Amino acid sequence: MRATMLVLCLGLLIGVASAVDSLNVRLIGICDTPGAANGVAVSGTHAYVPQPSTFSRDLGVSGTHAYVTTEGGGLRVISVADPAHPDEVGGYYTLGVMEGVAVSGDYAYVVVFPGGLRVVSVSDPANPVEVGYCDTPGGSCGVAVEGDYVYVADLDSGLRVISVADPVNPVEVGHCNTPDWAYGVAVSGSYAYVADNDSGLRVISVVDAAHPVEVGYCDAPSAAFGVAVSGDYAYVTGIHYGMWVMSVADPAHPVAVGSCGLSGEAYGIAASGGCVHVANDVAGLRIISVADPALPDEVGYYRTGFARSVFVCGDYTYVMDYLGGLQILQFYGGGVEEAPKAGVRTAGPIPTVVRGVLDLQVGSRQQAVDRAELLDAAGRRVMNLQAGANDVSRLAPGVYFIREAQAKSVRKVVIQR
Q1: Which pLDDT tens digit goes with each residue over 102-126?
Q2: Distance CA 65, CA 58 (A)
Q3: Residue 87 in contact with residue 78, Cβ under 8 Å?
Q4: How far apart are CA 280 and CA 303, in angstroms?
Q5: Strand pairing of 46-49 and 75-79?
Q6: Which pTM does this prediction carry?
C-alpha cells in the first residue's frame, strides 16, 4: 500500500513539474559540450560551440551550423542539420575566455577575454582555423557583424569598430567611448545599439565607421546587458530586472515604451516574428510577445536550467545553458501557420487573408469598435485593435481571431508575409 501511494505521489509531482516547466515551447534536441558553454551562432549546417568553461554566455545561429563559445576557450562546431540530433563535428581552441560570437559567410567572429577579436574560418566546419586577430584595449564581451565591419562591445573601452574587409588582417578603424561598461551590441542600418550597464542604451551612429559618434541614449531601470533591434524598437535585457522595450524610431531620442519583469537575471536576447526570446538564468528561455510594444506579454517559456545566450533561426530557438550545453527548442504558440497559398474557399467560414495591415471594418449598425482584440490560436490576446488600419506586420504568420465586445462571434484571419 505504501509503495502504491509513493508511486502515486511521485506521479503527481512529476505531473506538476512538467506542467510548470514549459509553456508553448517544446524541446527538440540537445548537444552537450565538454565544459560550460558561453555563446552560440548558427550558419550553414553546423553549430559552433566554445568549449571548457564555467558557464554559458553567448550563442549565434544561422542556417544549419551552430557555433558555441566557452569561458575555457575553444570553439565547438555542431551540426544542426537534424535539429533532433545535433552532433559535434569539429572544434578550435585558443587561450582566454571566449565570449560573444557572430557568423557571416565563411567566418566566425569571436571575442575573447582577454585577446580581442579572433577571426575563424569555418569554410570547413570539421576544421575551423583562426586566420586573423585584432586586439582591443578593453575586455571584449559582445559582438555583431554587418558588411565589412565587426562591432565589439569592449566593456570599459566602449564600442570598437573593426574592418574585416580582409579577414586575415582585421584592423580597428574607429571607436566610441561609452559612460559605463559596454556589454552587448546590435547593429541596424546606420546605427549601433549598445547595452551599457548602468548607463542604459546608447545609440551610436556608424555611418562613418572611422568616426562613430553617440547620437542618443535612454536610461534603463537596471544594469543593461543584452540588446536586440527589430524595426523601430530596441529590446534590452536588464541583469536585475527583465526586459524593456525602447522606441528608436528617432535614434536621437530613444524612449522606453514598455517592459516585462522577470525573476532572476536576464542575459541574451533575440527578436523574431513579433516576439523576443530571452535567456534568463533561473527561469531558462522566456518568450515575450511585443505585438503591442507598450504591453509586452509573456507567451511561452521552457526551463532549461541556467540560460545565458539565445539565437533564433527559422523555426527553432537555440539556447546555450550554464551546464546544459546547446539546447534546440521550438515555440509553437501564437498563430498556427497555414500553407503559403492559403486563400478563400467557396464553402464554410471565410477567413480574411492579411498582409501587413489588418483593416478592421465597422458594420453599418455599429458606430465604433468597442474593445476589439486580436487573439492567437490558443485564445490569448495578441494586441488591441482599433477601427481602420492596424499594423500586424510584426506578427508571426498564422491563424488569428478577431473578437469584438459587441459582436456575437469571432472572425478568423490568416496573417501572411
Answers
A1: 999 999 999 998 879 999 999 999 9
A2: 15
A3: yes
A4: 9
A5: antiparallel
A6: 0.76
